[in-house]
Amino acid sequence: MTDAEMIAALADRLNPEELKALAGRLKQKKREEIKPTPKELSDFETIWNERKKFTKRPGDPKKPALLKYCRQMREKPVSVEEILYGIRNEYGVRKDRPEFYCQMETFINQRRWENYDFAKAQAAARRIAQQVPQASNVVPMRAQHKTAFLIEWERQQAEKKSMGG
After folding, report:
1. What is the superkingdom listed in this entry's lineage (predicted)?
2. Residue 43 pLDDT more than 90?
3. What Cα–Cα distance (Å) separates residue 135 from each residue in 57, 127, 129, 130, 142?
4. Residue range of the domain that includes 147
5. Which three-class secondary structure state does DSSP give residue 103?
6. How confident is the model at residue 1 (pLDDT cuts 50, 70, 90)?
């Protein structure tokens, strides 16, 4: 018998307050049934810490958000990078209006990271990476330039000392 069937069967025998209390106990029982795995815990900590960079909103409960995260990942798994991309876009864009940030539990429950096209962003990043010269080609030039500058500076300092000034 499902929870809904049980409540429907008891609806004619219980008053509204008792029905509400029963529904609350069933909801609490569902929350307690979820036990996060170590991977889920570490992934959620990464996500939670990323969100903390944008806001330190008081009253944003962590445990319900963790349970929602576990439930969402078990129903339809998503990469942590995709959620982080969604957080950066959701909270990073509206830096001037933090009072309108949703709680983390809401962000996870509504799967708000799906509002942002992660695959498109990855493709753009790959295109840009192909256009930019490799670091191995760039760094030695900078190092040579810096070395030439330091050599010239040291030569000038040595001249000043030899002239007595």
Report:
1. Bacteria
2. yes
3. 39, 16, 11, 12, 10
4. 134-162
5. coil
6. low
